[in-house]
Write a structure and sequence with these properties.
It comes from Pontibacter fetidus. This protein is an alpha+beta fold. The chain has one domain. The strands form four sheets. It has a four-stranded antiparallel beta sheet. A three-stranded antiparallel beta sheet has the order 1-8-9, covered by helices on one side. It has a three-stranded antiparallel beta sheet with strand order 7-6-12. It has seven helices and twelve strands. The protein has helices spanning 7-18, 52-55, 59-68, 87-90, 105-112, 150-179, 212-218, and strands at 2-5, 37-41, 44-50, 70-79, 85-86, 91-95, 98-100, 130-136, 139-147, 185-186, 191-199, 206-210.
Length: 219
């Protein structure tokens, strides 16, 4: 009597299903969002949206937000004054009562990115194989390898996850750099769409303060 043992395949499937796979990244695109929450200071209007990573299905990065106590928010800044506004110098951001400076893109990326080398652990699946064992009257006679499934599963899953994580991380960094509000200027009557990354951030309401002294020195 012949019996096909698939314990190795069952084990491999369990590892794949229970282990953490790499996640993709979908762009936030602040200019395409609908904003409801609003704050205004001296003719500059802030509209914002929290939880944008989760809204776009970026579950891996939402976990990183929570783990590192930071929050990514999409913002819309409208300059209704007669002066050009320098966001870094003229605008102060607040999360609840606490003032904060948005994290620089590379620092934010370092805290949010997925680890890539960790997916090398999938190479541990390489020795897995599908085998056939022959029994005669309940006594084991012979075991032979039918197919070395691990040679495909191990390297294949490793490569897929490393490429997926690396590509997603690069897209995230591109968005953080493209939409960073740091060192941006807003001409009179114009609007800036961007991203702010709040250190030690929760879901406190955001607000801004544009000092009268800063505006007066521009006149």
């Amino acid at each position: 009597m012949r019996t096909f043992f698939t314990k190795t395949l069952a084990f491999a499937s369990a590892v794949i299903l229970l282990s953490s796979c790499a996640g993709s990244y979908k762009s936030i695109t602040p200019e395409n969002m609908h904003y409801e929450v609003k704050s205004e200071s001296n003719g500059v209007v802030l509209q914002y949206r929290l939880g944008v990573l989760g809204e776009h299905g970026n579950k891996k990065y939402v976990k990183k937000e929570s783990k590192n106590f930071i929050k990514v928010a999409a913002v819309k800044l409208t300059n209704n004054t007669a002066n050009t506004i320098d966001v870094s110098n003229d605008v102060k951001f607040f999360s609840g009562p606490n003032q904060f400076s948005s994290l620089e893109p590379k620092l934010a990326h370092a805290r949010l990115k997925q680890s890539v080398p960790i997916y090398l652990l999938y190479t541990l699946l390489t020795p897995l194989r599908l085998s056939e064992t022959t029994y005669v009257n309940g006594i084991k006679q012979e075991t032979r390898v039918i197919f070395p499934v691990g040679l495909i599963v191990g390297p294949g899953i490793t490569l897929y996850n490393m490429i997926t994580a690396g590509t997603a991380n690069n897209k995230l960094l591109s968005d953080l750099q493209k939409y960073s509000v740091l060192n941006k200027q807003i001409a009179p009557g114009e609007t800036l769409h961007g991203i702010v990354v709040i250190p030690n951030g929760g879901y406190n309401p955001l607000s801004i303060k544009v000092g009268e002294e800063e505006l007066q020195t521009k006149q």
